[in-house]
């Protein structure tokens, strides 16, 4: 949501929470909602301009505003009503300003915060479909007016109540609604709400009964109860809770109704979510299985690494022993990636910890001199998990090569620098590996991994160009235009296609 002028952080947060939660109002009112924000700073001489910053359409009725009005100004007939609500801080009803030529009924409600208007909400109802409303429609519209009245009094959304997160089991008006009085007695229950409670085994008449006592009587007292459940069922405070009974799961949400600071009733939205919970449990089981697979792959790779280590000790040829050691290090690198992925279920990984650890280990394993140090700058950030193994192997090969061919007998420093940039072509990851070069290295001759055409070069080139879709370059090391001993390997990987 983009505001036409800068607002205080508290004001913006209040409006965001309002629009995050106002779908309930649109469904109860069978109407479209539009939020209008002032186009000039409060207190300025110009108080005539407003811009639509959010819009909601009802799921319970046909939309009235077929065109998206976000970013536009109020039309000629609506503008004075919005101005009147803003200037007076009072509601403007369609009956107050008759407009015989229009088939739209528009009610205008100020959004108050701290005793002052911060925005205006317009409620657009299609009058061409009006008829004698059913009891359900009448109570829905009454409930919508109650919530809108709280908005105009600055008491909704409640400052100390967190807006419900967008989750699949979030109850909606059409899923079932119960209206209660100040004593928690049910005054109305929609047909869907009655059906949902009957699936729990509650078949008694709801109206005139206390919902909290009725539901808790059916709960298994030996099983733990959601600590928010009593308050939600009674409507004392805004919140969410769940009931799990007889293999049936019910998600509930309460909206206390207040007038002049006093609670006079509450709305409880409820939804039967048994199938959703069952699927969630299956997904959780699959996530656990995936983590276990990564853990077992890591263990198997470590076993392979141990076997290679044992075999290398039996080799009399230094070249064969070195080859096995390099293979063992590559296996350990892949094992480290699987170990990291066994602790998360996310598709994206924070690469800084993983690649920093791999870089440090690769330098320590490859260095014979005690004074070879690994130094890392910048950040890889969060990247797709599919990039973890190729990046870790590339870092391992480059670090190993830098230690073997780019450090002196007395030690040295191997540097790794990572950064991200964005240009017209998208986002890019840049990786630079620097070494100091041996004393006898020519300044203009960069050293490639494992020698030209070696296995290390083939691994790095294949991983960068094929697996990561990037490019790799070797250059003599330079700083501030001055050429220095050593090699600088630069890798650029595109992120915009991932």
Automatic annotation (TrEMBL):
**Pfam families assigned to the protein according to its UniProt record, in alphabetical order:** GAF_PdtaS, HATPase_c, HisKA_2
* Span of domain Histidine kinase/HSP90-like ATPase: 386-497
Return the broad EC class.
transferase
| Keywords, alphabetical | ATP-binding, Kinase, Nucleotide-binding, Phosphoprotein, Transferase
Gene3D superfamilies attached here?
GAF domain (3.30.450.280), Histidine kinase-like ATPase, C-terminal domain (3.30.565.10), PAS domain (3.30.450.20)
- For this protein, what is the EC number? 2.7.13.3
Kindly state which reaction or reactions the protein catalyses. ATP + protein L-histidine = ADP + protein N-phospho-L-histidine
MF annotations from Gene Ontology: kinase activity
Q: What is this protein called?
A: histidine kinase
The source organism is Citricoccus muralis
């Amino acid at each position: 949501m983009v505001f036409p002028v800068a607002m205080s952080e508290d004001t913006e947060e209040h409006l965001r929470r309002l629009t995050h939660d106002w779908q309930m109002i649109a469904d109860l009112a069978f109407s479209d909602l539009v939020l209008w924000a002032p186009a000039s700073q409060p207190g300025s001489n110009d108080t005539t301009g407003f811009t639509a910053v959010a819009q909601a359409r009802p799921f319970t009725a046909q939309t009235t505003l077929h065109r998206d009005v976000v970013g536009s100004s109020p039309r000629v007939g609506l503008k004075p009503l919005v101005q009147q609500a803003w200037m007076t801080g009072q509601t403007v009803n369609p009956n107050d300003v008759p407009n015989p030529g229009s088939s739209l009924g528009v009610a205008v409600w100020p959004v108050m915060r701290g005793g002052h208007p911060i925005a205006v909400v317009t409620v657009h109802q299609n009058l061409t479909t009006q008829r004698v409303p059913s009891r359900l429609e009448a109570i829905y519209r009454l409930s919508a007016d109650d919530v809108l009245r709280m908005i105009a009094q600055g008491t909704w959304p409640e400052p100390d109540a967190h807006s419900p997160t967008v989750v699949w089991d979030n109850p909606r008006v059409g899923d079932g609604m119960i209206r209660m009085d100040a004593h928690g007695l049910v005054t109305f229950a929609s047909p869907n709400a009655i059906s949902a409670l009957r699936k729990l085994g509650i078949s008694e008449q709801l109206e005139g009964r206390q919902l909290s006592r009725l539901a808790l009587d059916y709960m298994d007292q030996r099983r733990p109860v959601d600590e928010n459940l009593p308050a939600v069922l009674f409507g004392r405070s805004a919140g969410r809770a769940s009931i799990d009974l007889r293999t049936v799961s019910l998600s509930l949400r309460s909206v206390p109704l207040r007038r002049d600071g006093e609670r006079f009733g509450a709305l409880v939205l409820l939804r039967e979510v048994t199938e959703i919970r069952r699927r969630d449990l299956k997904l959780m089981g699959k996530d656990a299985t995936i983590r276990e697979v990564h853990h077992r792959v890591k263990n198997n790779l470590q076993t392979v690494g141990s076997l290679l280590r044992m075999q290398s000790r039996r080799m009399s040829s230094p070249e064969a022993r070195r080859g096995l050691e390099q293979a063992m290090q590559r296996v350990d690198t892949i094992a480290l990636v699987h170990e990291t992925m066994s602790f998360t279920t996310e598709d994206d990984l924070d690469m800084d910890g993983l690649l920093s650890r791999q870089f440090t280990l690769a330098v320590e394993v490859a260095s014979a001199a005690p004074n070879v140090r690994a130094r890392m700058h910048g950040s890889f950030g969060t990247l797709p998990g599919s990039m973890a193994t190729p990046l870790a192997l590339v870092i391992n090969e480059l670090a190993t090569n830098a230690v073997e061919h780019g450090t002196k007998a007395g030690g040295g420093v191997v540097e790794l620098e990572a950064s991200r940039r964005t240009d017209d072509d998208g986002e890019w990851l840049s990786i630079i590996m620097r070494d100091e070069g041996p004393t006898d290295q020519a300044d203009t001759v960069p050293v490639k991994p494992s020698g030209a055409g070696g296995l290390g070069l083939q691994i790095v080139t294949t991983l960068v160009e094929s697996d990561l879709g990037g490019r790799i370059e070797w250059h003599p090391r330079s700083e501030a235009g001055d050429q220095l001993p050593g090699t600088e390997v630069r890798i650029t990987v595109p992120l915009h296609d991932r």
